[in-house]
Amino acid sequence: MTSKIFRTVILGAPASGKGTIANRIVEKFGFVHISPGDILRLNVSNGTALGKKAKTYMDEGKLVPDELIIKCVSGRIIEAGNRSWMLDGFPRTVAQAERLQATEPVDAVLNLDVPTDVIIERVKGRWIHLPSGRVYNEGFNSPKVPFKDDVTGEDLVQRPDDKPEIVRKRLEVYHEAMKPVLEFYEKYNLVTKFAGRKTAEIWPEVEKFLLKKTEEVVAKRQ
Ligand code: ADP
Predict the structure, then answer these.
(1) Protein residue with least CA distance to atom 7, ligand 1
(2) How much is the pTM?
(3) Whose CA is nearest to atom 12 of ligand 1?
(4) The pairing of beta strand 134-137 with beta strand 126-129
(5) Which residues contact 103 (CB under 8 A, 6 or more apart)?
(6) Total count of domains within the chain
(7) Is 170 a catalytic residue?
(8) Which DSSP category does 141 fall into?
(9) Domain assignment of residue 81, yes or no
(10) How far is CA 41 from CA 48, 90, 93, 221, in A?
(11) Is residue 154, in this structure, part of any structural domain at all?
(12) Which residues line ligand 1 (CB under 6 A)?
């Protein structure tokens, strides 16, 4: 392929700061942000056929079947055309990772690593704008107007599943589920871990890494 696009996957536990880092990456590097969770929620609220099929799984906190999610992600990858992209919330199973690697091999997997106690504390102050998926955090990433989205001015909400005991459970489930996915990518030497307690510590490392890596990959494809 002669294309110079850069393909990346961002992994991080719920409330690890993945949303904030992902938004900064999009601003700085202009990647197309592909988030199946956001796509599905939009489809659910618009009542599309995909939304109707996905809703039953989402309501039960279950993963949407691979076939459905792969179709939805590949559609977005095709739409991205010759623009670089970043997947956020995909892959979540080895089957998804294998499918992606067979059709659109990624150049880098960014693995955000934030301690569990930090995450539990953090979710208490997390507010989201449902239609866009934009995430705010009291203290270090507050909205300009309290409880309002910066872009649309619409209300921000707290997710019911942001309660500490539910978060702890979700973190366990996340790590258990991601283990084989990480092992899959480690075989290809694609994983870079970014460890820290704060987004302010992690972001400069991610930025430095991507500046270097995108240059390398693009140079190789000249
Ligand atoms: P969270 O699990 O933190 O709520 P998302 O916003 O990424 O995260 O996803 C919302 C829901 O959409 C998930 O609970 C799941 O039902 C579905 N979903 C998102 N991404 C995937 C995926 N890669 N594979 C299967 N289902 C997914």
Answers:
(1) 37
(2) 0.84
(3) 37
(4) antiparallel
(5) 74
(6) 1
(7) yes
(8) B
(9) yes
(10) 10, 15, 20, 36
(11) no
(12) 14, 36-37, 40, 57-58, 61-64, 69, 89-92, 96
Is 18 marked active-site?
yes
Backbone angles phi, psi at 98, to 5 degrees: -65, -45
**Does 161 reside within a domain?**
no
Q: Is residue 31 domain-resident?
A: yes
Burial of 64 (0-12, 13-18, 19+ CB in 10 A): buried
Tens of pLDDT, residue by residue over 199-212, are: 999 999 999 999 99
Q: Which atom of ligand 1 is nearest to the CA of 92?
A: 23
At position 3, the amino acid (one-letter code) is S
What is the domain range of residue 88? 7-116+166-211
61 CA to centre of ligand 1 in angstroms: 8
Give the CATH number for residue 75.
3.40.50.300
With contact defined as beta carbons under 8 Å apart, do 103 and 96 qualify? no
Model pLDDT for residues 129-185, shown as the tens digit of each residue: 999 999 898 887 899 999 999 999 999 998 877 778 888 988 998 999 999 999 999
Cα 59 to averaged position of ligand 1 atoms, centre (Å): 10
Token pair in block for residue 34: 């592909």
CB 10 within 8 A of CB 18: yes
